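Risk mitigation, structural track. In case the binding assays with 2-acetamido-2-deoxy-beta-D-glucopyranose fail to produce interpretable data, a predicted complex structure has been prepared as a fallback.
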Amino acid sequence: MASGKIFFSALVLFVISVKLPEVDAGIKFNEAFMDRQRGMHILTSMKEYENKQGFEATLGFVSESGNDTYGEDINPLQVTVRIEKKTRLRVYISDYSNSRWEVPHSLLPRPKLSSKLKHVSSPQLAVTYTRKPFGFAVTRISNGEVLFNSTPPTTGNKNLLFNSLVFKDQYLELSTQLPSTAALFGLGESTRPDGLKLNKNRTFTLWATDTGSIRTDVDLYGSYPFYLDGREGGLFHGVLLLNSNGMEVVYQENYLTYKVLGGVLDFYFFLGPSPLDVVDQFTQLVGRPAPQPYWSFGFHQCRWGYRNVSMTKAVVENFRKAKIPLDTMWNDIDYMDKYKDFTNDKERFPLEEWRAFVDELHANGQQYVIIIDPGISIAYQNYGTYIRGLEANIYLKKQNGENYLGQVWPGPVFFPDFFHPNATQWWINETQSFYNQIPFDGMWIDMNELANFCTGISCTWNGTIIDDYTSCYLQCPNVLNHTKYDIPTYKINHEGTYEGLGYRTAAMTVKHYDGTIEYNVHNLYGLSEAIATNKAMTIVREKRPFVLSRSGFIGSGAHTAHWTGDNGASFNDLAYSIVTVLNFGIFGIPMIGADICGFNDETTEDICNRWIQVGAFHPFSRAHNNIANKPKELYLWESVTISAQKALGLRYRLLPFFYTLNYEANKKGYPIVRPLFFAFPTDPNTLNVNYQFLIGNSILVSPVVTANTTSIEAYFPKGTWYNMFDWSKIQSVGENFTLSAPWDSINVHIHEGVILPLQESALTSIEVRKTPFTLVVVFPSGALSGKANGYVFLDNGDEIIIYLKVNKSSLIIFEASLKNGEGVLKSKLKFKEYALEEGWILDGVILLGINTTHTSFYFNKNSINPERKILGEEGLHISGLNYPLGEAFELKWNST
Ligand SMILES: *[C@@H]1O[C@H](CO)[C@@H](O)[C@H](O)[C@H]1NC(C)=O
Ligand SMILES: *[C@@H]1O[C@H](CO)[C@@H](O)[C@H](O)[C@H]1NC(C)=O
Ligand SMILES: *[C@@H]1O[C@H](CO)[C@@H](O)[C@H](O)[C@H]1NC(C)=O
Ligand SMILES: *[C@@H]1O[C@H](CO)[C@@H](O)[C@H](O)[C@H]1NC(C)=O
Ligand SMILES: *[C@@H]1O[C@H](CO)[C@@H](O)[C@H](O)[C@H]1NC(C)=O
Ligand SMILES: *[C@@H]1O[C@H](CO)[C@@H](O)[C@H](O)[C@H]1NC(C)=O
Ligand SMILES: *[C@@H]1O[C@H](CO)[C@@H](O)[C@H](O)[C@H]1NC(C)=O
Ligand SMILES: *[C@@H]1O[C@H](CO)[C@@H](O)[C@H](O)[C@H]1NC(C)=O
Ligand SMILES: *[C@@H]1O[C@H](CO)[C@@H](O)[C@H](O)[C@H]1NC(C)=O
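Fallback model:
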């Protein structure tokens, strides 16, 4: 035990190669501070690891003045601190005597605490701690900056002082000091009128809920307890609290507080220092984003309300007539027989007609995706999926062992428990038999928060099905069951109401396999279903799976794409969706988009027009809307048709670039679209840009996000930027520009220093794949010297894993340099065989930032006289090269 001496311990330096100072020597303790800290946890014993790579400690509780409002304090506690990598630290705090709930390794594989530590040489972070009260701090060694510090400050406004660690069964509290200049991002999922950077004096509630993203600042479909923290000078780090329980994160002027309803405190710190490094380190732990099939980067069309095959078919036809690209057609729950999963309505979606339609899509190089919900109807004794689920015993259970009854679209349902050892095989079986009838290409898993139209645990069904889908009609009180799990003592700000947790979802005492209760597992339902669905789709198609999930958790990106959910159709919805899309890149789910033109509410021509211009450049580009509103297909307005042709036309030309970013996302975790500060972390102006974004590091999209607007103010980080539609240039020192934005145009600019692969536009991605390549090589304006580089990754787009392998894929690296007006562009190949076999051709090169007069060209040392076209002021497009992309080449030019 710590001595009773009245000392406040000094910060004890750990890890860095300084000898451990005496523990209790130090700063005299502050009376006011200590007074607030009665009932605190103090460090009582410690065991250091070899090589100073961490320690294990025991915390005792000073019991005299505890506060039992939220339950009794757990005593003693176990703390484990480990440097797991040069740039990754884990701090784990739990009950010393009893094991507690934690995110299962089966869902999120990661090093176990019991595993042997690998030696990490020269770690870039250090840990210090205080004994009394117990607190720890994480420091970036390179500059000594404290990144996280859970010890309350001893001075300052007393009202601003936070508690030291609190650890009870159903209430865990831990805070960190933060400098007021820190720039925080992340902590989802919610719709954010504040913009990208987190505002102070805000509480972020993390509890998966079936609420439309049209609602702002409330907990939505998933839980992502991860934030990115940028400090002065442009160094970033990330903080993950790996915990699946409901929680609030409260962000105040000088600190941030986690208030968590259970589980353990399992923190991971990722040192960066760039935002891309942080996401790389974070996804290395939680799972690299799943590679997405090539076709999924094409445009998608959906609507709840395509009530039969011919309506669905007509939409595909209309896209073709309007010459708007369309890769993938979707159906919502309309296709189902009485909303039963894996069934079709015999009248509206007769199998033969439906199958012929899907075959026709495939014949035209298009794809087809269907929705599936977790609730399995119990209303029909001949419903095979339900019966086989009963036999495999995979449904969620009540405490007494009976199947738990809820109500969703089909009426009375049981919910599969994807923790059950039989559940995945059952899900695969059902997917397989349905796939055998309708060969769909992707599965869209909705309502998996888990949504339930009834509340409570004591519902029964009287055998009647009513045609009222959204209110509860089962026989039950339809109120929260008064258990400590449904209504915990500490009430998080769930949906702005502080109601209990079990509202319109499974009751919190519902049991998963092995007795795990919904209270702990709730936020993981979407992840567990996504894992099973990804597996099912992989098995049945034997190709790279496409899964779109509404609910998710940390690690979901390894299995699924995501969309921003049920938004509205206002310009605010459009603007906020950009913020959500950027946040999901940070959460490791880079395949993300919003319902273009808005899901709920009526849209307008203006909104839909501007929305397709933005949505065309989001990784997942899908229009979708609600049966309750008028149709919103792009071709319904002439103006929107023209905008869509233009914006999607550029997107389709960019498909090899999007696909290369997909490869990069899978290898490094990098978001496909990124906030500006990802590419310009040392430019503080970028931290405040909310509605512009980058594709990769080099293409800046500056959309219109307000009504009746034809000119916008947009920020351009330093350098030369060229407009990708008219090749006009912007030369920025890091400043705002006023850009014209005529109704049919979106501003898309490419940055100097880049080589970008383009193909030709077409109405499907498969057609694009057959077209020749053009390389865009961008130098700074007016410079006599400069460098540019880029690369493209090519494979068949559908292999289950995405990898660089001879005969399977090619990686082509482009490098260009300019010296005294003489330039050279070269390619290098890793595995040329695949590109050669596919017969891809390099047709043209667009040189930007060069003197376009009297330029002579040499291709592989031979003088050539290609077709030329002047673009803008400093652009030259040469074409007709007709050279295999799979062979290395060298292009030289000079101005004579
Ligand atoms: C105990 O904690 C609760 C919640 O923070 C607070 O409202 C209450 O005032 C505290 N009681 C005492 C005696 O400090
Ligand atoms: C913080 O938010 C609360 C509640 O919305 C409000 O009453 C208070 O004035 C805000 N404080 C600051 C400093 O913005
Ligand atoms: C799995 O399903 C089989 C029947 O197919 C059943 O006998 C078995 O009990 C189920 N396993 C569990 C753990 O419920
Ligand atoms: C899945 O299908 C296989 C083959 O038909 C069958 O043997 C197995 O019992 C099924 N499993 C479940 C859980 O439905
Ligand atoms: C069954 O429940 C429904 C909905 O509450 C009700 O309208 C209906 O009258 C009930 N039927 C019987 C037979 O009790
Ligand atoms: C709460 O749950 C218990 C046990 O399942 C049940 O007996 C009781 O009726 C429930 N209360 C409500 C309001 O649903
Ligand atoms: C946009 O212009 C239309 C037509 O002039 C007008 O009806 C509408 O009120 C304007 N909207 C806004 C937000 O200014
Ligand atoms: C750019 O304009 C926005 C408002 O349109 C403003 O908030 C921002 O401070 C400006 N940035 C710079 C660097 O001037
Ligand atoms: C381009 O090169 C020509 C010929 O060398 C020269 O006369 C002209 O000034 C150059 N233009 C620019 C913009 O540097």
